Amino acid sequence: MTQLPFYRLPYGARRDQLAQLAHLTVSQLATIAARRQNGDDQLIENYLTTYGLPEGVAVNLRVDGHEVVVPMVTEEPSVIAAASNGGRLLNSREGIVTTVDRREVMGQIVFNHVADSTGLEAWLQAKQEEILNVANAAHPSLVTKHGGGARSIRVRRLPPHWVSLDIFIDVGEAMGANLVNTLCEAVADYIKAHLKVDVLMSILSNYATHSLVTARIAVPVTQLATKTVDGATVAEKICEASDYAQVDPYRAVTHNKGIMNGIDAVVIATGNDWRAVESGVHAFASQSGQYRGLSRWWLGEQGTELHGELTVPLALGVVGGATRVFPLVAINQQLAGQPTATELMGIVAAVGLAQNVAALRALVTEGIQRGHMHLQVKSLALSVGATTTELPAVVARLQAIKQPTMAQAQAALTAVRQENLRK
Ligand SMILES: CC(C)(COP(=O)([O-])OP(=O)([O-])OC[C@H]1O[C@@H](n2cnc3c(N)ncnc32)[C@H](O)[C@@H]1OP(=O)([O-])[O-])[C@@H](O)C(=O)NCCC(=O)NCCSC(=O)C[C@@](C)(O)CC(=O)[O-]
Ligand SMILES: NC(=O)C1=CN([C@@H]2O[C@H](COP(=O)(O)OP(=O)(O)OC[C@H]3O[C@@H](n4cnc5c(N)ncnc54)[C@H](OP(=O)(O)O)[C@@H]3O)[C@@H](O)[C@H]2O)C=CC1
Predict the structure, then answer these.
(1) Separation of CA 85 and ligand 1 centre (Å)
(2) What InterPro entries would the database entry show (predicted)?
């Protein structure tokens, strides 16, 4: 009998093969079994179990005049505290103000080995109307039900022999990847039926330069004061840190990682495609030819106000994709006040800005470790096996140590267990 390919095996047979291969113990198999979720096996391939991440909410955020509770999914301690802290630091009557000028996703049809790129470009430009009609006919409800549709085209010639036909598509309230791919493949078929061309591929671009969102804030510098450093000094140093992230890519990447701490967490909580967001955002950070910090902080003319701004490409949706697959996404949308896709872009950018100011303020004053490690010790204690009942006592011991190590965490747990035995 021929052996079935792995993906055709029933769940139990696949699990047993893995257990044998990786020498999984009975208790590890019980962990895998306990985390299985009905329906998740239909979402991905070769399903084994469901890997859960913690979800919390950031508070104190005011965006476009409204208080917003922001659901965040992250495994990293201090991220949600920092977002809430940033919201508090950036508190103002209107809060963080966001703008989205355009919300379109670009699809591209790439032609290969083009001998006459001038001729091809002229043909594509002349056929603009037909191309847009063919695209819209490929998924009519996008136009008729959701108010979207293909809007414009652009042709780019890329040496030595490629031409890209870019189609800009209003994807309604969706993220739009599947929609755009469907429309582009239909256009590619139409072109191939009329011209002898070699189409290399038809696919959306995740470089979402036509779905940019900007978050802006201005707050009195006094709001940035810490217990030991006055607000003007903190604000000035935040601006220096922001300027530095424009000139040193080594710093810019970390600066942006801090921003993405917030952005990714909301993107995941709202069922959006974080790989798409990550790749687009980092490409945008490199648009000048050098990787730079995404946010800018500067002092107002009198030096009494700190201004901040963050622009990021965010192709997000509130329908489609995974948004209806996970029940928690609907709950999270409700927690966030049922935002439209455009409003969600604003909320996510605002969290990125708040996250950034909290991290920069900590960095330029007391350093990141006190606030972060204070919250990180819980995760350190859990990582050495502390149970939730043992956690408070282990954490109390670790908080007395400046930079607790894994060995110290293990020793603290052993001490707590011995103490408990004596009780
Ligand atoms: C960690 C804090 C917030 C402590 O901040 P703090 O000033 O020591 O604490 P606080 O007690 O004064 O609290 C200030 C606010 O923080 C929030 N807060 C405070 N504690 C909690 C908590 N337990 N649970 C929930 N929220 C909390 C809360 O909103 C609170 O205000 P309140 O509501 O009390 O008026 C601060 O030090 C901070 O914002 N640090 C930045 C931490 C950070 O960015 N963490 C991400 C991981 S580090 C990283 O990956 C990025 C980085 C840093 O490399 C990026 C970069 O380099 O740019
Ligand atoms: N490179 C990438 O980023 C790629 C990403 N993906 C994945 O694609 C998925 C996202 O694609 P997307 O096209 O959004 O997903 P879907 O195809 O799941 O969702 C779009 C559908 O939602 C329906 N819809 C309902 N209401 C609206 C509305 N108001 N506006 C627009 N559409 C509406 C439409 O169906 P109807 O017209 O029938 O009502 C539309 O076809 C994600 O899962 C992503 O991970 C896939 C390929 C590549």
Answers:
(1) 5
(2) HMG_CoA_Rdtase, HMG_CoA_Rdtase_bac-typ, HMG_CoA_Rdtase_cat_sf, HMG_CoA_Rdtase_CS, HMG_CoA_Rdtase_NAD(P)-bd_sf, HMG_CoA_Rdtase_sub-bd_dom_sf
Q: Is 145 exposed, middle or buried (0-12, 13-18, 19+ CB in 10 A)?
A: exposed
Domain boundaries, the chain: 6-43, 55-100+211-364, 104-204, 371-422
Is 237 catalytic? The answer is no
Token pair of 55 as six digits: 């979800």
CATH topology of domain 371-422: Helicase, Ruva Protein; domain 3 (1.10.8)
Classify domain 55-100+211-364 at the CATH class level: alpha beta
Q: Is 273 a catalytic residue?
A: yes
Q: Please name the residue that has the structure tokens 């990550």.
A: 278
What tens digit of pLDDT does each residue of 382-417 get?
Answer: 899 999 999 989 999 988 888 888 899 999 999 999
Instruction: Report the topology of domain 104-204.
Output: Alpha-Beta Plaits (3.30.70)
Alpha-carbon distance 268 to 93, whole Å? 29
Per-chain mean pLDDT for the chain = 96
Indicate the DSSP class of residue 146. T
What average pLDDT does range 299-311 have in this prediction? 97
Q: How far is CA 373 from the centre of its chain?
A: 24
| pLDDT of the residue at 1 | 55
Q: Which residue's CA lies nearest to atom 41 of ligand 1?
A: 359
Would the CB of 264 count as within 6 Å of ligand 2?
Answer: no
Give catalytic status of residue 257 as yes or no: yes
Q: Does the pLDDT of residue 371 top 80, yes or no?
A: no
